[in-house]
Amino acid sequence: MSPLPKAQQVLRPPLLSPLIPVRETQEASLGDLIRMVAESVADAQSALDRASAGLVRELAETEVEIVPTIQEVIGKDGGISFERGPLQKVSLLDLGVMPTFYQFSQTVIDVQMDLKITESSDESGKRSGRFALLADTGSIRFERKLNRDVSVTSRVTATLVPVPMPLRLEPVRSIAAPASADTDES
Length: 186
Known about the structure:
Elements: E1 27-29, H1 30-61, E2 63-66, E3 70-74, E4 80-84, E5 88-91, E6 101-111, E7 114-121, E8 127-136, H2 138-145, E9 154-163
Antiparallel strand pairs: 1-8, 2-5, 3-4, 6-9, 7-8
């Protein structure tokens, strides 16, 4: 199997590869349809969380050199000079660069379909008394193919909001003064 074209590459493998042929079904249980929507949103949220966690790792592993101290020195003549401390390597996470975390606050999926109640039967034709609510798009597609006046629209809206990072992710920061050799211990 050949890899996906660059335009179709994503951060992780797609749930349904565009390279594998699929067969469209015209009806599905409404419960299954709702469950698939919920699982899709949960899968997308999981991908967002993995991306943020990966960014935390990348920030922790990316080091830059910084000048930790700059001392301003006033000379006897009143001139000012600056003395830089030795360069130090620190991670971007150590510097306080934090990733943004997101979560879905709302997801709306509108699909035009017919709903019908069905009752299953066994091989002999005896009714089982088991009813199901099915979502059917077949008749709507048929109407559209015949150019009948059918308003068919589908819409997916997802609202993402930034959320605070996990409480334990932010490192506790403190400043420790170096021990002085001039300390008088009596």
